Amino acid sequence: xxxxxxxAATAPRARARTGGPRDDSRLLENILGWTLVVVLAxxxxxxxxx
Length: 50
Hints:
Layout: H1 3-10, H2 26-46
């Protein structure tokens, strides 16, 4: 195994931030997800598709 592959395999998670969402907002993500599910269910029920 080359030293580059060994270094990459054991490197800590020190990636550069790319502007994506952080991993510490699980509560907000769950609330928004369930809100989307409820709104979609209401829309489908009102249109008679369910």
